[in-house]
Amino acid sequence: KGAKAGDIITVGEYSDFDFSVEYNIEPGCNSGIKYFYTKYATGENLGLEYQILDDQLAEDNKKANHLCGSFYDVFPPNESIKKVNAPGQWNSIRIVSKGKKVEHWLNGVKIVKFIRGEKAYTDGVALSKFNKTVPAFGMIDKGHILLQEHGGVISFRNIKIKLL
Q1: What are the residues whose beta carbons fall under 8 Å from the beta carbon of 39, sequence distance 6 or more?
Q2: What is the pLDDT of residues 6-25, one digit of tens each?
């Protein structure tokens, strides 16, 4: 914490995949896993983000679509079924992408699902901070997977990518 760290990014790019990882955060931590991560024509490196957050103590906990498990700034997780272990305990994440269908799983429970390009998706992106990207945000065919360093202490283990 407080040291210069950095993101961890895959060498390869992925489109249809089943990605799983376990993570453990310190209280107040904000991090994430970005997928379909690439450089956009607008000049930024961006990716769809599975938000990892201490929902209780992190600063970015004011919007539902910023909470742990969300598709960051676009879709909130289903809080009625979400079960997240407290900071200091391990949680498991799974991200499944097949064609345009995407699922976010947390501790064995599917908490977000969407189809890239459908109306609900484009409406959500239009209301997000990603609404001006070129090409349209998240509509690329493939991209890298990135484990985000965002200033807090986070540990990852059992990282697996299965091609579908």
Answers
A1: 45
A2: 899 999 999 999 999 999 99
